[in-house]
Amino acid sequence: MNQTGISKLARLRELMKIATVNGVEKKGIEAFILNYGDCHQSEYLTERDKRLSFLSGFTGSRGTIIVTNDKALLWTDGRYFLQAVSEFDPPQDWTLMKEGVLGVPTQFEWLNTNLPPKSTVGVDINVISYTDWVSMYNNLNNKGHTLIPLEENLVDKIWDNRPAPVLNPIVAHKLEYSGKKAKDKVEHCWELMKTNGVSHLVFSALDEVAYLLNWRGSDIPYNPVFFAYVVLDRENVHIFVDKSRLTEEAEEQLKNEGIVPIYHSYDEILNFLKEKSTAATDENRVWISSGSICALHCACGSHVYRAYSPIGLMKSIKNETEIKGMKEAHVRDGVALVKYFAWLEDQLKNKKAVITEISGADQLEKFRQEQELYVGVSFTTISSSGDHAAVIHYHPTPATDKRITDKEVYLCDAGAQFLDGTTDVTRTWHFGTPTDFEKECFTRVFKGQCFLNTAVFPNMTKGNYLDTLARKSLWDVGLDYIHGTGHGVGSYLNVHELPIGISWKPMPDDPGVQAGVFLSNEPGFYEDGKFGIRLENIELVVKANSKYNFNNRNYLTFETVTLVPIQTSFLDLSLLTNAEIDYINNYHTKCLDTLKPLLQGSENAQALSWLIKQTEPISKSKDF
């Protein structure tokens, strides 16, 4: 049966009327909460877990839906405001709630204002984090409402052709890329378990599981992870996975790295935790992250130590092998991007062919496929021209595919997965003549990126405190952008890596920025319906050579590992300081010196010529 947006909401509301509440059949609920996510709180999802998209049409990677008898609302952040409105199905039945915008109520504020007294609200505890559950429960309870766990996600009951689970092979991630044996990682966790008086430690985030075991998979698009849980007791490693998926190489490597695990079925995780929780005491607790799903916390019982996973920080601080691999991956990616932008400019200026957002992204993929150790993209390429560039997480489809021309801004945000590292870079170009306003915006975005990159700050500074640096030049003239400034980047893992980031929003699990962490640096500006600008580099956090060292804190700064020129002809030189001009000239010298030897031969002549031109030094007196 062909399910329309209207029929989906109608069927959902019928189920809400007869939902079982606290064992009472057909008691019903007044509101249903649908969180974006899966059982592992993944950012990217398999088709099977895209419930928000199925119900509303919205395809973004963050959101929460609330459905009542007469309302359907979606909360999402600034990256997706334009996208959500354009994707709603049907648009007249959905209301966008702009998360973080002044005057827009939070989910519980809206519920408390709009629900009848003593209402019952249902949510699937297999896709809501414990943190979000507690917050929602307490806020609704304070107003006399009741939040209940549903036995089954109501969307699953109306999803007639829900895709099957993904069960791809699990492979070894070699020590030459990981730089640290699985046994060393496990032993570090055992030490922390002893220190914190816990008997079991639960890992549910898929990138943490993959990192800990030195395995990789392909269950979720763009992320080299696989569906599994790991639980450590004081002596053993319990892996909850479909064992038939393991390659012989993966099993053998784990054994060679000192781990002989106990295997369990993937679906046994809740029963296992329930059994262990019966023997737990205040001195013998289960360690679980508050960011994991509420269902896992319920299974762990009352003797729980809730703290961020030790693997989260361990994987964020790269070892020497990972740092080397990440740098080399960005060099290869730089070669591919230089070849792409050189090709694109030639196509446009010489009118050789019609290039669209999709055909451009496809060509970039071809250049990346030429590079050693390339696996695939790390997210869907954001190839966006003109007004599409104002949609922060836009990606072209056959229905929206637009021609790239020299009359509009072109924004390309693209990342790659290499066996030795993960990349993410954004460049914005104008292959013709930008307006004065576009030029000023581009320059102020560049100034913000430069100001953040050159900052010196104390060790363990929260990323939240650094966010203002990238915005200052925009704020000076009353401009801003409505997304974070930087996210962590995995080492052949997720392109968005927690817990450290740079954002206007506090990140509660951020322990502070430390040497060895890779972060993006990506300020931007977007004028709805007209254009968008973003410049993104990946930065390695390194020790700074500060004149003083107050309180022996040690000071840090950033080293840029992205190697792709920034369009100097798009800059308003009158707005730049001498230090900023020196900064971009030095950066371009590094790009040229690093990439030039890799662009030799007649097949690379176009790219090399373009690179040399784009990295020419600029000065205040130079006339563009």
Key attributes of the depicted protein:
single chain; 624 residues; alpha+beta; 6-stranded mixed β-sheet; 34% helix
Please outline the helices and strands.
Elements: H1 5-17, E1 31-35, H2 51-56, E2 64-68, E3 72-76, H3 81-87, E4 95-98, H4 107-114, E5 120-123, H5 130-141, E6 146-149, H6 154-158, E7 171-172, H7 175-178, H8 182-195, E8 198-203, H9 206-213, E9 215-216, E10 229-232, E11 237-240, H10 248-256, E12 262-264, H11 269-277, E13 285-288, H12 294-300, E14 304-306, H13 310-316, H14 320-349, H15 357-369, E15 374-377, E16 382-385, E17 410-414, E18 416-418, E19 421-422, E20 425-429, H16 436-453, E21 457-458, H17 463-475, E22 486-488, E23 497-502, E24 518-521, E25 524-527, E26 531-534, E27 537-543, E28 555-560, H18 578-595, H19 605-614
Parallel strand pairs: 1-5, 3-4, 5-6, 8-13, 11-12, 13-14
Antiparallel strand pairs: 1-2, 2-3, 7-9, 8-10, 10-11, 15-18, 16-17, 17-20, 18-19, 21-28, 22-23, 24-27, 25-26, 27-28
